[in-house]
Amino acid sequence: MRLGVCYYPEHWPEARWADDAAAMVAMGLRQVRIGEFAWSRVEPEPGVFDWGWLDRAIDTLGGAGLRVILGTPTATPPKWLVDAAPDILAWDRQGRVRGFGSRRHYCFSSQTYRQEAARITRAFAGRYGMHPHVAGWQIDNEYGCHDTTLSYSPAAREGFRRWLRFKYRDIAALNAAWGTVFWSQDYGGFGAVELPNLTVTEPNPAQVMDFRRYSSERVVRFNQVMAGIVREHSPGRDIMHNVMGFVTDFDHHALGADLDVTAWDSYPLGFLEQYWFSEAEKVRYARTGHPDIAAFHHDLYRGCSRGRWGVIEQQPGPVNWARHNPAPLPGMVRLWTLEAAAHGAEYVSYFRWRQFPQAQEAMHAGLQRVDGAEAPAAAEVRAVAAELAALGAQTVERAPVALIVDYPGLWAMEAQPQGADYRGIELLFRAYEALRRLGLDVDVVSAAANFSDYAMVVAPVLPFVDEGLVARLAAFEGQVLLGPRAGSKTADFAIPGALAPGALQALIPLKVTQVESLRRDVRHAGDGFVVERWLEHVESALAPELATDDGHGVLWRQGGVRYLSCWPDAGLWRAALVAMAGEAGVAVTTLPDGVRMRRTAERIFVFNWGPDTVDPQPFLGDDDVTKELPVAGVLIANC
Amino acid sequence: MRLGVCYYPEHWPEARWADDAAAMVAMGLRQVRIGEFAWSRVEPEPGVFDWGWLDRAIDTLGGAGLRVILGTPTATPPKWLVDAAPDILAWDRQGRVRGFGSRRHYCFSSQTYRQEAARITRAFAGRYGMHPHVAGWQIDNEYGCHDTTLSYSPAAREGFRRWLRFKYRDIAALNAAWGTVFWSQDYGGFGAVELPNLTVTEPNPAQVMDFRRYSSERVVRFNQVMAGIVREHSPGRDIMHNVMGFVTDFDHHALGADLDVTAWDSYPLGFLEQYWFSEAEKVRYARTGHPDIAAFHHDLYRGCSRGRWGVIEQQPGPVNWARHNPAPLPGMVRLWTLEAAAHGAEYVSYFRWRQFPQAQEAMHAGLQRVDGAEAPAAAEVRAVAAELAALGAQTVERAPVALIVDYPGLWAMEAQPQGADYRGIELLFRAYEALRRLGLDVDVVSAAANFSDYAMVVAPVLPFVDEGLVARLAAFEGQVLLGPRAGSKTADFAIPGALAPGALQALIPLKVTQVESLRRDVRHAGDGFVVERWLEHVESALAPELATDDGHGVLWRQGGVRYLSCWPDAGLWRAALVAMAGEAGVAVTTLPDGVRMRRTAERIFVFNWGPDTVDPQPFLGDDDVTKELPVAGVLIANC
Amino acid sequence: MRLGVCYYPEHWPEARWADDAAAMVAMGLRQVRIGEFAWSRVEPEPGVFDWGWLDRAIDTLGGAGLRVILGTPTATPPKWLVDAAPDILAWDRQGRVRGFGSRRHYCFSSQTYRQEAARITRAFAGRYGMHPHVAGWQIDNEYGCHDTTLSYSPAAREGFRRWLRFKYRDIAALNAAWGTVFWSQDYGGFGAVELPNLTVTEPNPAQVMDFRRYSSERVVRFNQVMAGIVREHSPGRDIMHNVMGFVTDFDHHALGADLDVTAWDSYPLGFLEQYWFSEAEKVRYARTGHPDIAAFHHDLYRGCSRGRWGVIEQQPGPVNWARHNPAPLPGMVRLWTLEAAAHGAEYVSYFRWRQFPQAQEAMHAGLQRVDGAEAPAAAEVRAVAAELAALGAQTVERAPVALIVDYPGLWAMEAQPQGADYRGIELLFRAYEALRRLGLDVDVVSAAANFSDYAMVVAPVLPFVDEGLVARLAAFEGQVLLGPRAGSKTADFAIPGALAPGALQALIPLKVTQVESLRRDVRHAGDGFVVERWLEHVESALAPELATDDGHGVLWRQGGVRYLSCWPDAGLWRAALVAMAGEAGVAVTTLPDGVRMRRTAERIFVFNWGPDTVDPQPFLGDDDVTKELPVAGVLIANC
Lengths: 639, 639, 639
Hints:
Three copies of one chain form a homotrimer.
Chain A (H helix, E strand, L loop, with lengths): L1 E5 L7 H14 L3 E4 L4 H4 L9 H12 L3 E5 L7 H6 L26 H18 L5 E5 L15 H15 L2 H8 L26 H29 L4 E6 L8 H6 L3 E6 L1 H7 L4 H6 L8 H10 L6 E6 L17 H11 L4 E4 L25 H16 L9 E4 L2 H9 L8 H14 L4 E4 L10 E4 L7 H9 L3 E4 L27 E8 L6 E2 L4 E2 L2 E7 L5 E2 L5 E6 L2 E4 L5 H15 L10 E5 L3 E6 L8 H4 L13 E5 L1
Parallel strand pairs in A: 1-2, 1-8, 2-3, 3-4, 4-5, 5-6, 6-7, 7-8, 9-10, 9-11, 11-12, 12-19
Antiparallel strand pairs in A: 13-16, 14-15, 17-18, 18-19, 20-21, 21-22
Helix pairs in contact in A: 1-3, 5-8, 6-8, 8-15, 13-14, 16-18
GO molecular function (chains A, B, C): beta-galactosidase activity; metal ion binding
Catalytic activity (chains A, B, C): Hydrolysis of terminal non-reducing beta-D-galactose residues in beta-D-galactosides
EC number (chains A, B, C): 3.2.1.23
């Protein structure tokens, strides 16, 4: 696994570049990403290009032995373009234009912007496509970040109408699909359809769902066009995009299909702080990140581009953008790096080389401090570079478990949560966490995947199921676990005529006759678990495998297929997974809280994220390994 | 009492209508409400009407023996109308147009919309006014729902100016009434007055109060015009509107004066979850609703149309629109139905017949599931239909207690709460709760009511008092209890020159010299009660009947008139009510927590909303009744 | 010290004026402020003036022996002006026009408004400038109140662009200063710069910082122009403005330079309720105010106009504008008055004479009730007037401690908090509180002050340091305490090349290499203190004077200079201040919780804000004083 770094030559005097490049190499870095926000410096005026500095930067960095990953700068259209074509701007849900002055201010539906983006992308690719130092490309930057997938602009409205016309052909078909007979929502033509914002009460969820699909496709199509331009001019180079953590507004599987490598930006402390983790988790893991945040995304993004992935931005110290921004515990930068290796990354690239003393990210740490001295992470990077060299390449093998992540399913849960705290992504994450606490390796796959070589398939959030999926699950010989609301929606976002789980009734004969969303203190206790948030009433000839003390079946089974008819807590996830693993013949290991394991073909990696030293011998079953795995420590054992 | 149901023939294939009608009748239902959102299907294009389906639906339903209540569809103007006349749309407080895509998007001040609404109402009434199956009409749907009474549109501004000109005649009169001398707010003419939104800090409360009155009158007038059209074409039929729970933005007494029957929509679980109940109450009563929610509204709306009222939408299972949507406890649909009978409803109509699998309310339960099988409520409905038949008609008699609900008074508390948690509606509700926990039946009346036949009059929120009211109270021979801030405002929203309680000083000689709003942890304890939120300093020759330990008088009495000079907790409400009931010769009964009683001329009904079985013998004083009233149980005893 | 009152003759019948004036004088009042919101009554139509009533009011009040402070009415432009020139209105951060209907709706950047404001100010000053009863002027009212310093109007955009052009001359200089190379933010010209609102994610903090400077300067310049007009027409009279508590949006030192007297509006209960005090403090001090709120502002504003200051609005009872509005404890109006005297006020003026029964402040107490009887405060005022007469003039001497308040530094903490709860003003206040709990008198000074006669200088929030400041601190022979983030920003809002504390490294040799913002439950404990919120990692040859148990140095010292590298709690403030006071030879006294002392040249004042009687003998070391200082009591001892 390569190590690399993100660098902004335009931020620093040209005189420093060579020293910086040499220092990178000396630290063990072999890759450098540049250029992704440099539009205003490459094209300071419309049509006037200043390539000289970038030519020299690439030469200097590449000449020092660094593989250059070149970014296209479309995430930051410059002010002169915004002034010339204000229709490129996105509009927020409140109907306000999202103005210039930060980043990602463009609307994916703007035809003007797509032309301008293609123009600058072509300019970059044309100039550097065959450059010997340019080993790869990053298209744009962090699609979806800052809630930028959805735009409510006039351009988006026009685009959505075109997309609907293409999808439904006949307005009657749209009216039928959305159930517009409800509340007199009938449309007389595609040109009458509005965006689903600023309505008096909630908009039609089928309309929301189509708008989510449309918006996701706009991102994927934008990327596809830009990737195509680059590929045309730069054959043989890796084309990548850097996706974010916990951003699920667009379909990463669809995006990844157009990329050679799905890269992602890993900020374990920032993500812990910003998302829906409990207060106790936010305190406990404040300086390490929750043990499953990075791993979940590693496994997710490994599945997006045929197994090729990397971490193109790795948090090296405190960031500036979370509500609170602590420093990683000593050892964590090494741990995060080795963790990526254990999950099969091609590279880990730290963000950024040197902390920039100005502008929005002035308080974001780098490997060097503002004064040019090394930040605390630098020593860890140098050490782990040596460790990785000694370790050699790691081969990722198919995991025993496939976890299905279906992006449209996540949008459906947002379009119609039915309970204020029903968060699809949280449910997915908790399933992943439960699997990993049992010591299991996991492949995250799309609903279109071939499951046949897995022992277990887990689908926590799968409201949409098509015939092909049902057929593949029916043919699957391993164990299947379906989460609540599986099969609960038709493609048109209707409740299936035969009730949920709809077509999945072919696999497990039950009907969900009623659902309850519950506030957190309304609880149904069971043996080792408590049900909160969500409870389904099930009609079935089956007897439940597990039930609450007050008689609600919560886990149902027929043959190799199980269905969870509630929001499971950690205890219920564990019980269900242990049961299915037993049937599947997959060995599980109860790991101490805060400890995780991950296997490659060559090694077993054990990571300690908890606050105390742990003895790994009991769960590794190996008397030869150390008895003391310290806090933030990593144990690498032979298989 | 009739049972009925809400039905949407336009949602279902015509071939199902006859079977549905037959099944309704078989279940014991005798009434069906239809049509209230069907504008786009009746008039799919401007001026092009498709009556055929509605003709046939009425024939089918009516032919099966169901009384048809026909809704006018003005709550959902279709898209073609919005596109042709965007000035019909409401604007929110933030100055944004409230767009098409859900419902209630019209502005009551739009003259265009009032013409269009009259046109479609006339079309409905003209066609079906004399139809033999049409037994009644519902005008529009849920006025005020989704915060739609107040609109800040240009039309509303114009309308408000006209209304002010009519009210004040001379701008000097307005300036004097509003005290515009304060902060240089003087207006040179009615055309200069703006709506009270988007000001730098709070707007003038007298202006807000007038805007609230204006907005309420717009609702009442809209309804009056539509009701007049229907009445002209459909003489002898009941004209109704379905009002909501806890919506107090317009004056329901004024609305009810133009209706034959005030109908309301009862969603006990949704209302509990959405309103200001404590966390503990929301958990305790999650699956039953707070014991006083439905009853309070029953008694309130019984007082709006000369005693005629009904529940036109009754929650039959989980809804879709609250933050959390649990299922009613088994037995609750029966309990709610019998409760309505005990309060004198003409009918209870469940919402809806069959769960519709699409659009905004796809997750809202019905009597039938999406698959056409019976939902859990169906069996309860069938059973209670039989029970009601056996029970016979119930006669509502005058209650011993009149509780005054004065809508302008509630608006005043919102226009000037003076303490962040001073909620008039909550204070009203807690008074009602306290009365009912003493086993008392209550009539809710307007401030214009004739009190003479009551034993007790309770007015928790009565800032405005006019001469007539003072005279009626002075002449009243029973016991009166006035809440805090009674008489604290003149009609122009000024503090009375003689201080609060203003003209009520004729009844009880005291002056409120100073008021304090207190955060919840700043407490003044008394014997069996604690004062939080609100405390008045009183100057009086009277000695207080009750005082806090630190010497603040909180209950004052002269003759039959009492005044509460604080926000009372349950203990203080109880103490005050027990004292006045004693003087009034009204017997009280301390009911167990969660138990309520209600008497008709024929029966005593006892309802158990609590989590445990209770023994009703002690408080009924009747050894013959059961000793075990189960959870969600109803005991019907002879008087 | 004079006592006075705020009065609105336009609110009352002319027939009452003389009686009111006589009653004021009889109560011991000698000053009256009038006129500051009277524009619409003085100029009811454009160019049509009605001076008669104001002439007579001034004659009546002045004739009764009251010094008249006349307000210019620019805080409330009348409706006819708003209608004629809507460009005078401010725009909020969300891009909405802030409309007419309350106050302070004007935009400081509007050239139209500046002309109109000058016109009306000239009219007032021209008419009354030489009036014998007019002893002083108040320009406008409460700049910044209701978040009105910052406006995002087109006029503000134009003004900001002009200001930037003047500051930077060359757009390249602006681009360099703001680091616009980051995220392609480069501007091609000053006309391309937008205001820093409505961006996709956070705007450039250097841009925000310049906008804050610009906006502050607009306030200062507006006041300067108006003060200049008044001074020209009214030589020899005191020119004042009434600033608010905890409003720090503009530079009060710069404002004060153009005033003769900095007046302020003291609402101890309202401020406690509205700001960031803990829940426990809000309950404990609900009826007294936190003991340091008024004192902090007294000392702050005493430093703004060369020592001349007063309280022009003093809370006399419950106000109307806080979330909760309790009444002051009996004795508090006296205590607050004597406290102002102890801090050297020229006057205390109660707001307002009589409670006005209408409009936005109808619920705001006065010295008279609405019915004209005396409110509870009146007796305290009468008594304290006599006490003050007996006490004689108080001479304020230089305090031993200078506390630096640097407004740009506070804006910097808002432009880039880096942790969600890093509030500069709170940090400042807690330093002040800690000093006062040690019995120390404090002078609050600007960063430009001459420190040489102080024993101690404390600078809790000082991110910007210029050469002059460093030189003054270096030359200073007393003890210096620097708070976290001192010297952390260059003037252009960059991190210093040599890291924080930048130029202050000349005084104390350390570098802040990394900073952590921490959520409240992530704690580092030490001996008698706990670090939360903020922790800096320091590189230094120095050994820390204090460190956490886990080894983080938190207090550093070289010679007389100390640096706090964390957010200190009360324990750490105390430890640091006790240490430096010891070195400085300043005696400290540990006061009981809730007790404060303040010395003049003539007296020692002791105030008891706590809930219990205290014995002041131990900390006064004086056996002759009372042993029982009651709640809300004041002890005045000889020095």
